[in-house]
Design brief:
single chain; alpha+beta; FAD/NAD(P)-binding domain; Elongation Factor Tu (Ef-tu), domain 3; 2 domains; six-stranded mixed beta sheet; six-stranded antiparallel beta sheet; cytoplasm; flavoprotein
Amino acid sequence: MTQTLHIVGGGMAGSEAAWQAAQAGIPVVIHEMRPKVETFAHQTGKLAEMVCSNSFRSDDHEQNAVGLLHWEMREAGGLIMEMADTHQLPAGGALAVDREAFSQGVTDRLRAHPLITVEEGEITSLPDDGHWIFATGPLTSTALGEAIAAETSAESLAFFDAIAPIVYADTVDMTKAWMQSRYDKGETEEERTAYLNCPMTKEQYEAFIDALLASDKTEFHEGETAGYFDGCLPIEVMADRGRETLRFGPMKPVGLTNAHDPENKPYAVVQLRRDNKLGTLFNIVGFQTKMKYGAQTDVFRMIPGLEDAKFARLGGIHRNTFMNSPTLLDEQMRLKSRPNIRFAGQITGVEGYVESAAMGLLAARFAIAEIKGTPLPPLPQDTAMGALVHHITGGAEAKTFQPMNVNFGLFRPVDGLKGGRKGRKDRYKAYTDRAKAAWKEWLSA
């Protein structure tokens, strides 16, 4: 095999794509601009660095579309899922990881592979020949973004991602906080006590909302618009939609019992999830924010148990660019105007670590088949990967295209099953059973 696959971007999608191709015997060059060219959100030059949450979300492969995507990636020998499993942290029914150990693990495996070369430096233009996958993610450099916009004759779309703060665990007041996963979910005691919980009374909640709404926020530059993805809204934006929004969102008190006062149900609860294996760092779940740093410390220390909290990282906000993929990419994720180039990851309009890595996996498998001259059968739309790639490459309405998580709403109905909430459990199981059979058949081909 003499044809090399070039991958631009060493995030989740690029790392997974590189692994898939190299495991298939294809020489790979990963072009990663970090650490020579830094971004607002990244802290290191490691591959597959996690910059927002440390969670891959639900691992339930029978009742959850994200969990099904986990299953499909494991079946395909995915490196991202292998490293997530290796560096897993207790998180109830979710798959959370020690972010530093995870990133180091991915980096070590890729750099040690005999067919993979990592070249540090920025790619600023679209190549005319060769086999390429662009997986530059939400923080695509300005120069490359301009090159993509010039090629596609379309304005770059953009929304804004917010990052949640991280707290040092030993600065939390455990006379007020307690450890418990929602509904005591998990098979082990460690999983059932994976989250740190801070309760609020109605008065404390109202005061918190007042402070949140009055706080100093990051201002946008002229010409920027704050188009947020609904799955990653800053808490101030949620609070501005209604005073009870947070209490029915990330601060919902359901499924939790205050260990210090079990007879009284909290009005609201702030949850923190372990961020590293040592348990020394916890991130505040769902607390993405665009508050200025000084305001963050003042407002977050109003939370019972966090009055003296020390922050390992404060929250922030950054631009997140993505393409209008339904108009620009074909069904094999190739740029229609330059079919030697594929796109993968968040830049294609998927949202989330898992979805990004999955699109990297698919782009690589399409490229492998093309390089080897062994065409693949059509990707089954009834798989999680098939449903997602179908959505971004043609199933979505181009005029209103926005970033999308994988969800069962993207799946074709199963004949004979009723809709509605009552039939949901059977319906979801039917979706996942059908998907697993189709995915296995596609992989074997």
